[in-house]
Amino acid sequence: MAALTNSRNTPELADDGRTLVYPVEANTTVYLGSIVALNGNGNATPAASVAGLKILGRAEMVSNGIPGQDATNNPGAAGAISIVARRGVFMYAVNDGSINAAQVGLVAFAVDDNSVSLSDGSAATAVVAQSTTFPAATSAQIVSFGHEGVAKVKVHSTSGGGTVYVEGTDYVVDYPAGLLMLVNGGAIAAAATVFIDYNWGAATRSAAGRIAAIDPSGQVWIDFWHQSAAAV
Q1: CA 173, CA 61: separation in Å to the nearest integer?
Q2: Which of 85, 107, 131, 179 could form a disulfide with 174 if both were Cys (CB 3.0 to 4.6 A apart)?
Q3: What are phi and psi of 102, to 5 degrees?
Q4: pLDDT in tens, 17-29
Q5: What are phi and psi of 118, to 5 degrees?
Q6: Could you give the CA distance from residue 171 to residue 132 in angstroms, rounded to a whole number?
Q7: What's the pTM?
Q8: Count of other CB atoms within 10 angstroms of residue 40
């Protein structure tokens, strides 16, 4: 289609695109209220601990279905029924205790259709007590792990353990890029040497959304609109 040469009445998606309808994958059940995702075929499936899913948000209702009816397409061909998925900020469980107040603002990854984790599941290779020294105090206090796609990071003061530093208070991690940065005023001094335990490898989970808040119940509010640390 050619570029415009005059004004255009451009349609706007209703509800700001918050709720959209997607075909359900063959032989699949999506429970209402669950975390729902699109697979590589463009069909809705329950969120799972795999890479490459496009996490949509909460399964809201079966399109043209009975209120309260789960999207049961089992048995059934792909697209035999459709699900309405809603983006927003919804509360789900933490699968492994990896998320607390210090992780608010970071991205959580889908583990299943009811829980998330701070870890993207990378676990191809485990590294223990990697010695890492930050640059001189006059330089930016950022170092590389030497690998991208890191997970399960633990930073401590000695090779045998020592002081275990606190993420979000003493340091922050760019997990996809494999970078470690000191927090100003934290317990790690500029130019210090620390020892890092971590896993690295390709992500084996899909980004669910940004951690918006911690609920007193211990569950977390996930912002499904924003699925990247750089999203605004």
Answers
A1: 37
A2: 179
A3: -70, -20
A4: 999 999 999 999 9
A5: -75, -25
A6: 13
A7: 0.74
A8: 8
- State the Cα–Cα distance between residues 80 and 97, nearest whole angstrom: 38
- The rounded distance, in Å, linking the Cα atoms of 117 and 98 is 6
Task: Report the alpha-carbon angle 51-101-146, nearest 5.
Answer: 50
Whether 119 contacts 173, CB under 8 Å: no
pLDDT for 192 equals 96
Task: Report the Cα 130 to chain-centroid distance in Å.
Answer: 26
pLDDT of residue 231: 38
Distances (CA, A) of 187 to 113, 135, 157, 166: 37, 16, 10, 9
Q: 133 to each of 68, 114, 121, how far by Cα in Å?
A: 56, 39, 26
The tokens for 60 are 């809201």
Q: Which of 26, 93, 88 is nearest to 60 (CA)?
A: 88
Q: How confident is the model at residue 232 (pLDDT cuts 50, 70, 90)?
A: very low
What DSSP character marks residue 3? P
CA geometry: angle at 178 spanning 177 and 183, to 5°? 105
CB 111 within 8 A of CB 75: no
CB 18, CB 88: distance < 8 Å: yes
pLDDT digits (tens, 9 = 90+) for 101-141: 988 988 999 999 999 998 888 767 889 999 999 999 999 99
